[in-house]
Amino acid sequence: MSSNFFQPVDASAVPRFAGLSTFMRLPAVASAVGLDIALVGIPWDGGTTNRAGARHGPREIRNQSSLMRRAHHVSGVEPFSIANVADVGDLSVNPINLMDGLKRIEDGIADIVAAGAIPLAAGGDHLTTLPVLRAVAKDRPVGMVHFDAHSDTNDRYFGDNPYTHGTPFRRAIEEGLLDPKRVVQIGIRGSIYEPGEHDWAVAQGIRIIYMEEFVRRGAAGVMEEARAIAGTGPTYVTFDIDCIDPSMAPGTGTPELGGFTTREAQEMVRLLDGLDIVGADVVEVAPPFDLGGMTALAGATMMFELLCVLAKSVQEARAREIR
Amino acid sequence: MSSNFFQPVDASAVPRFAGLSTFMRLPAVASAVGLDIALVGIPWDGGTTNRAGARHGPREIRNQSSLMRRAHHVSGVEPFSIANVADVGDLSVNPINLMDGLKRIEDGIADIVAAGAIPLAAGGDHLTTLPVLRAVAKDRPVGMVHFDAHSDTNDRYFGDNPYTHGTPFRRAIEEGLLDPKRVVQIGIRGSIYEPGEHDWAVAQGIRIIYMEEFVRRGAAGVMEEARAIAGTGPTYVTFDIDCIDPSMAPGTGTPELGGFTTREAQEMVRLLDGLDIVGADVVEVAPPFDLGGMTALAGATMMFELLCVLAKSVQEARAREIR
Amino acid sequence: MSSNFFQPVDASAVPRFAGLSTFMRLPAVASAVGLDIALVGIPWDGGTTNRAGARHGPREIRNQSSLMRRAHHVSGVEPFSIANVADVGDLSVNPINLMDGLKRIEDGIADIVAAGAIPLAAGGDHLTTLPVLRAVAKDRPVGMVHFDAHSDTNDRYFGDNPYTHGTPFRRAIEEGLLDPKRVVQIGIRGSIYEPGEHDWAVAQGIRIIYMEEFVRRGAAGVMEEARAIAGTGPTYVTFDIDCIDPSMAPGTGTPELGGFTTREAQEMVRLLDGLDIVGADVVEVAPPFDLGGMTALAGATMMFELLCVLAKSVQEARAREIR
Amino acid sequence: MSSNFFQPVDASAVPRFAGLSTFMRLPAVASAVGLDIALVGIPWDGGTTNRAGARHGPREIRNQSSLMRRAHHVSGVEPFSIANVADVGDLSVNPINLMDGLKRIEDGIADIVAAGAIPLAAGGDHLTTLPVLRAVAKDRPVGMVHFDAHSDTNDRYFGDNPYTHGTPFRRAIEEGLLDPKRVVQIGIRGSIYEPGEHDWAVAQGIRIIYMEEFVRRGAAGVMEEARAIAGTGPTYVTFDIDCIDPSMAPGTGTPELGGFTTREAQEMVRLLDGLDIVGADVVEVAPPFDLGGMTALAGATMMFELLCVLAKSVQEARAREIR
Amino acid sequence: MSSNFFQPVDASAVPRFAGLSTFMRLPAVASAVGLDIALVGIPWDGGTTNRAGARHGPREIRNQSSLMRRAHHVSGVEPFSIANVADVGDLSVNPINLMDGLKRIEDGIADIVAAGAIPLAAGGDHLTTLPVLRAVAKDRPVGMVHFDAHSDTNDRYFGDNPYTHGTPFRRAIEEGLLDPKRVVQIGIRGSIYEPGEHDWAVAQGIRIIYMEEFVRRGAAGVMEEARAIAGTGPTYVTFDIDCIDPSMAPGTGTPELGGFTTREAQEMVRLLDGLDIVGADVVEVAPPFDLGGMTALAGATMMFELLCVLAKSVQEARAREIR
Amino acid sequence: MSSNFFQPVDASAVPRFAGLSTFMRLPAVASAVGLDIALVGIPWDGGTTNRAGARHGPREIRNQSSLMRRAHHVSGVEPFSIANVADVGDLSVNPINLMDGLKRIEDGIADIVAAGAIPLAAGGDHLTTLPVLRAVAKDRPVGMVHFDAHSDTNDRYFGDNPYTHGTPFRRAIEEGLLDPKRVVQIGIRGSIYEPGEHDWAVAQGIRIIYMEEFVRRGAAGVMEEARAIAGTGPTYVTFDIDCIDPSMAPGTGTPELGGFTTREAQEMVRLLDGLDIVGADVVEVAPPFDLGGMTALAGATMMFELLCVLAKSVQEARAREIR
């Protein structure tokens, strides 16, 4: 079966700097049909309130993902052997029209979902997750494991504007896309607009694990709770690169000191194992503010970590179907 | 009379790196009332189709403008002695709502115009010039001297979107803000979408002086024609930093090889002397793509060059009134 | 009462990149009169023995401080509601005359102290702390909590020069500005000139906590001791950014591998709570050696952390006075 | 006829930052069969004696070539309408085995030539031109127009090593690939190993036009002579990016002050019109030493300039065949 | 005795930025005769499969090593008082001929060994360690403590090429230079080519301590085992800078997320104390990819840490001889 | 005779990145005795009023000077064959004591002069030229050819401070070191403190050639006049790197738009041929503000250009003596 799966170019045969730049050196395909997991770029930052640049994220994440190899050194998972994965390119976007931009992203992800593939997206700013959820959670609310420095559940900006990268999850809850009781936010930190900034989110049932709680409990403890919150239902995973400390991921729009190390982030993502993940993304990689591709490399590596978890989940689902 | 004019901080008394950062180290004032010339920032790039970042332009132009001194070494003009000039801060902007953004800019410039001051703006992308013209040319169309690599008279982008930094002057002509027969574009170059890309502009009466013609004729010849085209009527001057070669102004959204040297640009702006300038701007300085502040320094210096021409124009107008 | 306090510009109303750049987007005021806490820049690096550039620190710290918001997410402190805080600009400096430079800084801080405000300064190199102490500790020696990679208690450089950024605290003790028995230095590390380099400091009574001791004991343990050393008397807090690891704060003159993470630094500063802090500074941010503003952001964030502690201290002092 | 030609993605429909990165946003194809002109990357710098990095050239040139549009603003040429052009990807290379690397490049270009397409290559260091010539000039020596700061006709390096980026054209003449009397080198400058360094080249019949002669005569005069030297026979064009001044093209291995401006380089390439060009390349773009993509943008633009000349040549050849 | 040892320039007398740049500001000497420890550069990256640049490592490590002082703040070791140490310059290399490059390095190190000095080398890519071992282990296999993200025991690349920076230790074992049962690799991590990638190494007897095991056990536990593995026999120490996290050492060819902090690396190297070290190196510092000299500073500091351990070992050996 | 002259390392034998970094890869010698021309670094920026960093100039100029070869491609001069040239290292400096700094530089240059060598210095800021002149012109005033954006003849800064990099030539004239009637300043431009800023200089007899006059007349005309002004007497040449346009030399303290191209600067320096040059310098290269070493490369190349002129002058003087 796996003999027909797409395979990445092997860096011991073709050097990493050679060839067209695709996610993890996989083939670029025109459609998600036949894929288990579709790697997709969403080059859009229409919701960014401060430093734009996440529109350039997918291209640089592709470049840095040339450093990924075929197997995970801890779990032993070989994602490309147990799932059919390819690069479906970038979604069509509109950098100057917010509402059209949201529509295009929703449509693009809907095509992937309709093809039976799980989207693993490279953003884009965090507002991109809203239209992704509109496609992925169209039929029922999903749970969410959310790694971030910010809760992104604010209400309005610059007057009465409801759609920014600071508001996607308030909108998603209002639209019934998320089941807030199955949502956990991990790594929240940094100065806030007002002491009650997170009250609305908490009142909806979201569990916020601040950075300080993470430091006390560690990855294993936190992720045990996170998995319990997400439960066995369909779950989305969103990884805002600014959850990582700015020294390790400087290329982002709203850096906050005191974040996760990449080691901590990797450990947490590995502990997502066993969830029923229906989609995932890595967002807010903003190359114009990056240094030496460090943030894009972190983004690419986190995509690989997510991919290994997703691929194993696909394999297990397939095994269940066969039984 | 001049004893009441605002003066910049003197760098031989207070070093350039000290003190709050304002345009040319002038006082920051809350309103344009009482000013002859209002230096104003427009930190907005809502119309950018490729690389955003001009929203950060005003801050970096202010930083680099600390290198300006009090007098022009060629013309001998002392702008701060013959005109009242200050930094009126940044206009209120909206980074995520294009139509609201346009409105806020128009309102902000209208306030300056109503106060009797001439706006000298630091953008912002080139779409910012459209709402500036709506305020400056509200009562009658104006002429325009336009330094740029691009004509910016395209029609629609990404479907049916009329407002981008590639379309401001088509809109301005349609809205009756510009008299196309009094418009000259200098420095146009680079690959184009189609051979007829500039036909509409030429048909309206705009005179396009391509870079190659400039190379043949030189600054003096070109500017003699430009002054003749603009004539004696009210004229706006817009300076897109990408008219300068990318090696000298890399920090911009749409670089095109083969541009003006800064020496050529300075010579041309000095030859604007004698026009009736009702407003001016320097746009498309995009700090996230800048190198060592080089582009912001070019922007700040071109603002100083424009200021010297404007101040002399103010002085002459005042002299005429007194007579 | 708090209704008259200065408030920062709200980033959900005006984007962070807009407006003049001041500390934490607070108003710029001409004098410290009426303030509880004066944020002040000291753009001077006249004592730097290796890589200069801290003279540019205040400007970049101001830029990056636009990312600060109104409330502390752990302590819940809202500094701008419980204390009157503003940006009093930069002190007058002299970059080419060391003795005049020291005098100007002392005078500038003396004005702030005379106005009844507590100075929270952004340096500048570490020699700036000496004239600050001359103003703050004019009437009696103070204790000091000192975060740094270096003890800065050397004696002479380049022959017989007593004033450099490697000597301020030796001079301060000699001048009776510091009570060495109430001084603790935390984070000291890196190769040293000779094994006995710190003997003088220890002989005076200074407690040096090397990085390796910190790693063993953790922030809570170390800070418990630090608070005990500082005691209930008036205490100065000086935060040399090079106490943080160079990977997180590369923009400094004398980087030393193996420093604090920002998370550790934040935890320690939060544990200053309860001290009687009469002044504080963040020094040695050198933007010409910074990468992507990372160090200036660390400096700005540490200033915010210090501000929250200071504001609470002001609030408590006011409460005591009222009783 | 042209309706079947490949077309680039239109930037007014899909933003330049979106989509996979190919040369000029053309389709990526698996073979040169059916193409008139094959854009090909040669990511190899095995012959570099100082600063390596040209191996990364093709990827960054592709990225920057997203700024190219469909038509040439001076000649009016629409290359994609008059010739079938596509991106055939990168040649297979070997970064650690020089002789195998040379063989792979020769084989790869031979495939393109066999398919009937003209190769327009993005290097790679200048040694890559030797195996390209082995494929292109297999059957008869060719003439060459060579833009460069260096003659690249040295003999041996580091002992007795014949193949480096300083020796390709000595080897090519020895191998009978170049007709030295039809070779012109333009822009040569910089300090030399010894006064007679170029004697061998001149003795073979190569015409060297030093930078100083270019400055005196100008592009038109120099190119008239260059066209006469190349004559009507098959001619290769090689454009070493270091012919351009390092301020405009810093990302290269052996920068030499005092080079061409990009404006001059563009003018010269446009004057290649009418030659029988059988292949061309842009080499020595070394992204690790580039600043803001400036050099890669220059490389991409020079490729576009070369492409317009090539396409017109293809069109004229086709017209001749039809007649 | 120590009065005749070479001493570094004192930074409190001559500033760090002044004077020729040598390792740790030591004298440059023409030969290793009379030295206990020879600091030597190996500017060669002929085995690099992806991003070259380690050829520039020695120069930048020298520059950054100007920040080192005379004594170790933890161990109290004064290396320059207990061992004669100097900078013997760079080995002769050949950047375009792999086999000649290997030969030149072996010969250069053999000269140092013949002079009775221990080489402490600054690479260069990791393939440089193979010819170093050929010189150091000529007479008998040695043990090795190996800090790295990669095992570097692969077999062939790009066809049948046996010598790359991914293969040195497979070759070294095959050549009998290493006793694999006395080899420990610490910090291995990152995606791998295939699940069995390390099987060959393990089968030889190499002990691989993955990063995750290090995180669980800590430096003390891991190094206790490492010392036991290396035992009392002659041991080589090789420190690949990519064992450190890319955020702290970005300037390297094959970065892998999730590495050691510099604090952890320093702690481990200090725990090498007591081994019989016959040579050591710091490799894979690639300045073209570095940020602000951060990686070269890490490399220089790790060299200083290794030097302190080596010098103490020299001192103890001398003491044993005297007895 | 020339057989005993020092020779640079040959880049076709030893790659440019290898070996200790000295000026033009010449031997480092301890004293100027026996030299005709002494290349010397002056790592000092104690007079800098804005952006410091020229203290790091000599090190980076040395690094970039590795790109220089043995012969001049236009004049054919082989400087190392006709004059004995070596790197005498850096002068002893004091970064924190201005008056001691001036003294040390004067003493250091006096030693070179006493040894009978001509100093060719790499600064350092422009104040370094004052103590150099004190040594070189001790016995009689000299003429000077001065390339610069600024006249550097101001009087006082920051109160009553007479010594800054804006004042050296006022002091030099007051001290009788310069004969103002034999001084020409070329390239002066940029905004000025007041219209009469240069009146004092002109009144002394200095000839100022502004950039605009240079543009009109060209290098040949300007240099003919410059040679006439300097005449046959002893002449010093000082080359402030900021005379070159900031796009070509961004790494400097006080950049001014519209400067010389490097091509123009090279042409002018070549036309110094025939003067009796008693010393020369290249100053104001400030690496912390440089981009990619571009400015240091310009500085190194201008040193090479100056060296060729100096060496020929030495050769001719020797010929005269022999006759």
Walkthrough of the structure:
With 323 residues, chain A is α/β, with parallel strands linked by helices. Chain A contains nine helices and eight strands. Chain A is globular, with a radius of gyration of 18 Å. Chains in contact: A-B, A-C, A-D, A-E, B-C, B-D, B-F, C-E, C-F, D-E, D-F, E-F. The B-D interface holds B 49-51, 154, 156-159, 166, 188-195, 197, 210-212, 215, 245-247, 250-251, 254-259, 289-291 and D 10-13, 15-17, 67-74, 76, 78, 245, 247-248, 261-263, 266, 291-292, 294, 297-298, 301, 304. Chains A, B, C, D, E, F: GO terms for molecular function: agmatinase activity.
Itemize the secondary structure elements and their pairings.
The structure is a homohexamer of 323-residue chains.
Chain A: E1 37-41, H1 57-64, H2 79-82, E2 85-90, H3 98-114, E3 118-122, H4 129-136, E4 142-147, H5 168-174, E5 178-188, H6 199-204, E6 207-210, H7 211-230, E7 234-240, H8 262-270, E8 276-283, H9 294-322
Parallel strand pairs in A: 1-2, 1-3, 3-8, 4-5, 4-7, 5-6, 7-8
Labels describing this entry:
homohexamer; 323 residues; alpha/beta; 8-stranded parallel β-sheet; 9 helices; 8 strands; 16% strand; globular
Task: Give a quick rundown of the structure.
Six copies of one chain form a homohexamer. Chain A is α/β, with parallel strands linked by helices.
